[in-house]
TrEMBL record:
It comes from Cyprinus carpio (Common carp). This is Ubiquitin carboxyl-terminal hydrolase. Residues 173-281 form the UBP-type domain. PROSITE patterns: UBA, USP_1, USP_3, ZF_UBP. Residues 324-837 form the USP domain. The lineage of its organism: Eukaryota, Metazoa, Chordata, Craniata, Vertebrata. Residues 72-98, 386-408, 499-522, 766-792 are annotated as: Disordered. It is an enzyme of class 3 (hydrolase). SUPFAM superfamilies: Cysteine proteinases (SSF54001), RING/U-box (SSF57850), UBA-like (SSF46934).
Amino acid sequence: MTEVNEILMSVLSTIRVPRPGDRVHKDECAFSFASPESDGGLYVCMNSFLGFGSKYVERHHVKTGQRAYLHITRTRKTQKEDDNNSGSGDPPKKKPTRLAIGIEGGFDVEQEQYEEEVKVVLFPDRQEVTSEDLASMPDVVRERVSLSMAGLQAADSVSHTLQVQQWDGEVRQESKHAAELKQLDNGIKIPPCGWKCEVCDLQENLWMNLTDGKVLCGRRYFDGSGGNNHALLHYQQTGYPLAVKLGTITPDGADVYSYDEDDMVLDSKLPEHLSHFGIDMMTMEKTERTMTELEIAVNQRVGEWEVIQESGSTLRPLWGPGLTGMKNLGNSCYLNSVMQVLFTIPDFQTKYVSNIDKVFNEAPSDPTQDFKTQVAKLGYGLLSGEYSKPAPDPGDDPSSSTEPRGDQVGIAPRMFKALVGRGHPEFSTNRQQDAQEFLLHFINMVERNCLSGMNPSEAFRFLVEEKIVCQQSQKAKYTQRVDYIVQLPVPMDQATNMEELQEAERRREEAESSGAPPSAAPRAQIPFAACLAALSEPETLTDFWSSAVQAKTTATKTTRFASFPDHLVIQIKKFTFGLDWVPKKLDVSIDVPDTLDLSALRAMGQQPGEELLPEVAPLPLVTPDVKVKGILGSHGNEEDDSLYSPLLSPVLDDSTVSQLCEMGFPLEACRKAVYYTGNTGIDAAMNWVMGHMEDPDFSAPLVLPGSSSAPGTTPTESLPEEHLVTIVSMGFSRDQATRALRATNNVLERAVDWIFSHLDDLESMDVSEGGRSGGGSEASREPPPGPRVRDGTGSMLLMYSLSLFASFRWVIFNDQKVCASEKPPKDLGYLYFYRRVVE
């Protein structure tokens, strides 16, 4: 051991003991999905605390010179078969009784037991040092190495810290209103049964307000069931915060909701509050399901979920390259589905997987925080086939050979999920999210991280042309914008089974009036052609401000494709808003075709003899957080300066802003809507909001033309030349790049986001430097530079569909299960991915 002693003495200064706050990666390799359970185990650098599989630890040693690594290996213990088991090898699953994950009574999460072995390995010769070996070494070596080993073993791994392993949806906090709740002496006494809503006579999902005793129905759910929101409306009118769900009151408690705190809460004075309205809590019996039971039922729901999973069919498991499952990290199916699809697209494969060695060699000192490295790691994990093999059965002896199960070893994208979700209010959590929103979020990250070189998101990028025609002057306005997804509306009035739906609605109303339970409603059958027609038909704009007639009038807007992408994403808008602005999910089946020809939707541009609406700049705007600078000195007279004076600048219509805010939209978005529609009223502003909800800067503060971002204002600080060159290399002019950087305080990533969300403004700006000359003839002018987009035919072939997981032509990817699909549920998808057919 003399040689080992000498090596340890020479590297002792590089061996660190983890301190609070240190990031310890002892569950996952920085470059692969190797873990302590994998063949070869995991090597944790005893200096940086980064983890590496056996394939990549040598690379780290050569690059950094680090020699000491803690080698962790885990071997799964054999689990004894449950006494009540039927002999299948799997213990019987208990029905969940709590809205929780990873705790007794909650939803089942496999917690496998492992035996762990640790030792120090010294590179490059991979000499091993065990805890027993340390006993015979000098005190200074033994103490430092032992403390480091113990600290690494005791430290929580980064993945453990970020992932919520135990989530209990039933943990409720005491309401801040409970102790001093005001109760009116209005003489109301509530009977022990026979309740109904005081507004609509609904007899289920009833809530009693604990301030005035009003009995009203609960919220309407996304699928249209539930109540009619009368209890919520009562709170909005009165401000009375607490309500109890009738039918859930027992001697042990009841469901209490706080509208002000927007959550289920505890009320320590509930017996007293109920007694005020004549309810004896100790004699009440449960007659309705609690909110927890309702949510558990939703998580165990059948119907569409069963169809999507192809339940009832024995599906054939698939293995091999490109057929790798992904573990669900707790409501991460949205991420799994999107990433499975993206890495079947050649652009993403080329960018991140084909040159993976180059990506890894150029990785920074902490590759766990590098976007390109982690995306490449995920792509290789999905495509290589290294992790596409049967998962061992916890009930089987590891040495026995049995028929493989459908589950795979798969990959757990913890490091990737933590990185792409960092700082995001939704994707950083373990809550379920929207696949379309995540796709746009990820594309936005790709755009920011591909400011030079190949950009795979170009495969989805296309131009949309919007044509607005003033009906009074017949003059037109053309604008173009970049988009990545086509959102198809669902025209419910075009259902082919309308008679069946109307009969079901009649039966529902009868059941509601008689108090009988409603029967299952049929699913609406909507032709895909009707959805496409709804997208392409002209939209009527009322209260349109026409620059030609200088007044409000009616206009029509048509939307067409100015280019067709290599890969077209279509979202079926299954969520809509009712008249009361409550979101509602549409239960629909749509006959999505395998092939699609969109050539008829190609934009034609300005037509011969067609006159354009005069260009008018938006009104200046003053907001509390932005001061518009005057231009005195630039033009040299007070008259010009007064035009930009905050005292004389038009302001927003506060009533319109307030109406939009009351609908739940962000304040800054509401300000933008009113500003960009020229204070023309709620309808125009609402149309703007609905058309820009997916903009990356939808909620960002408004950048004003009168600020430093506009041409002709006061001089600003010099712009970084390297930022200008980067943006110009993406296909934009120097003036456009300058405007974007000035609008975002010279922050390159923000400037790129800004430029893609302000294409309409950029198209109309005058180009003086490196672009079009203001004095040239109209015929000699070239089209303004813009984002790079690909174009081709409008013929498309359906390749993939997403619901809660992905189906490829036609393989079903359901987390760690990858199987050949027998009945692909194409009609129930949410996102559809088409590939352009090359003739």
